[in-house]
Amino acid sequence: MNLSDLKPSEGSRKKRKRVGRGTGSGRGTTAGYGNKGQRSTSGGTKPEWFEGGQMPLTRRIPKRGFKNPFRVEYALVKVGDLAVFKGKDKVSIQDFIESGFIKDMKNRVKLLSDGEIDFSLKVAVHKASKKAIEKVKAQGGDVEVMI
Asked: Which of 90, 74, 73, 67 lies closest to 136, judged by CA?
């Protein structure tokens, strides 16, 4: 047996339909698209969201309020969560992500005053509440607010 002897099995290969090759082919003139109507011509398709001239869904739904495109979202970290970092000198945003306190990183990180801390620690965040800064500084630590 040679490679030249190999052939596909019977019925596994189908001839492609040749449309628009004259009336004798059976698929001439309109090439299977019918005679008239929007779908019979080139470019005669509508987008999936087209509703037949009916008022579109996005325009029917009431719109309320104002969505500020420049809003800054903060991922929140509590002072009580800092207990995990006991023994470290400095904690950065990367440490919060690795420890799992920040699961969904927003634009920035904010330190809130919930909980207590009983050791000195330097914390680097984008924003912090006044009480949170007071709690960390009361233990001899420092809060570095990044811009």
From this structure: 90
